[in-house]
């Protein structure tokens, strides 16, 4: 496995891989890797001849007052995980390499970025879309692997790639969870022991919503109330949103139908946790 820090080196390696007839897989991350990230690497290594993981904590997607400065980092351990997964190349650029001059060109995605995370973190998805556009530009034609844990992020990135005719196939991968149902996240390290004990309430709230739908409930507000009632059991958590929406548009258009997504965001102390799950209504 090779580790590079410059865009030019990464481009040269990927161009060479494609020239020799290989397909390229891209796994963008912010590091502090866990089994969720590793599952994206497994998928990419299985599907492609050459896999590049990027490790970059992107300042553009953090608002003032969010956890940019304290975001957990451990490059040495990250590289061990990438190597064990059979990754070919890691691009770990500094901020100066990615943003050598103050950026004047940004990418914003409209409707699908507006609700849910977009309401709570208005600058977030423009930061995500901009850095992912840069990574897609660096990587060139490839498959790019993203976690369904960040459901709205997948929707935003997919829409961007479609609208801007980027030569990238966005591949969503299932959420990897701890044994008690908590979705793995680099930010779980922020949880104090008591908060960690209560954090699986997100999974249970999603289950309550899924049960309500399975029992025939089609009113999104009622499903959301069922989810909120479960989260309320966790006295250390503050709900940001609970939502039952159509899976593609991330809004409702009347009674729930076809592909439905349940999404939830809860603040536990320093940790803002998100999770989601979905079902099909016949
Ligand atoms: P991050 O480093 O948090 O920006 O995440 C990098 C990629 O890993 C994103 O596509 C995430 O959706 C994905 N990811 C994060 N947590 C998980 C998880 N528990 N299961 C699957 N994918 C994940």
Describe this structure in words.
37% of the residues lie in helices and 22% in strands. It has 282 residues and is of the alpha/beta class. The chain folds into 2 domains: 2-173, HUPs (Rossmann fold, 3-Layer(aba) Sandwich), CATH 3.40.50; 186-277, 2-Layer Sandwich (Pantoate--beta-alanine Ligase, Chain: A,domain 2), CATH 3.30.1300. A 6-stranded parallel sheet has the order 1-4-3-2-5-6, sandwiched between helices. Helix 3 links the parallel strand 3 (50-55) and strand 4 (89-91). The longest helix has 16 residues, at 124-139. It is globular. The mean pLDDT is 98. The structure holds adenosine monophosphate. Adenosine monophosphate (AMP) is lined by residues 29-30, 36-37, 39-40, 146-147, 149-150, 173, 175-176, 183-186.
N-end to C-end Cα span:
47 Å
Biggest sheet overview: 6 strands, parallel
Fill in the CATH topology of the largest domain: Rossmann fold
CATH secondary-structure class of the largest domain: Alpha Beta
Structural class: alpha/beta
- In total, the number of strands is 9
Portion of residues in helices? 25-40%
Bound molecules: adenosine monophosphate
CATH superfamily of the largest domain: HUPs
Q: Provide the succession of SSEs.
A: EHEHEHEHHHEHEHHHEEE
- Name of the CATH architecture of the largest domain: 3-Layer(aba) Sandwich
Strands across the major sheet, in which order?
1-4-3-2-5-6
Identify low-pLDDT runs. Answer: none
């Amino acid at each position: 496995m090779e580790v590079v820090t410059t865009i030019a080196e990464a481009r040269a390696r990927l161009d060479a891989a494609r020239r020799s007839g290989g397909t390229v897989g891209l796994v963008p991350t912010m590091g502090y890797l866990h089994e969720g990230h590793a599952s994206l690497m497994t998928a990419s290594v299985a599907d492609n001849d050459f896999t590049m993981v990027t490790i970059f904590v992107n300042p553009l997607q953090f608002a003032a007052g969010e956890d940019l400065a304290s975001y957990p980092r451990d490059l040495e351990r990250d590289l061990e995980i990438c190597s064990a997964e059979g990754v070919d190349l890691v691009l770990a650029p500094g901020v100066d390499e990615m943003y050598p001059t103050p950026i004047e060109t940004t990418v914003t995605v409209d409707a699908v970025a507006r609700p849910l995370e977009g309401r709570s973190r208005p600058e977030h998805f423009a930061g995500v879309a901009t850095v992912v556009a840069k990574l897609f530009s660096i990587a060139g034609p490839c498959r790019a692997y993203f976690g369904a844990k960040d459901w709205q992020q997948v929707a935003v990135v997919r829409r961007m790639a479609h609208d801007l005719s980027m030569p990238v196939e966005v591949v969503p991968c299932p959420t990897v969870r701890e044994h008690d149902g908590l979705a793995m996240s680099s930010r779980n390290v922020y949880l104090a022991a008591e908060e960690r004990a209560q954090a699986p309430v997100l999974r249970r709230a999603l289950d309550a919503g899924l049960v309500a739908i399975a029992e025939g409930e089609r009113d999104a507000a009622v499903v959301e109330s069922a989810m909120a009632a479960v989260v309320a059991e966790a006295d250390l958590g503050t709900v940001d949103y609970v939502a039952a929406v159509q899976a593609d548009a991330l809004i409702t258009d009347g009674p729930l139908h076809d592909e439905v997504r349940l999404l939830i965001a809860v603040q536990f102390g320093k940790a803002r946790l998100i999770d989601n799950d979905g079902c099909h209504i016949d």
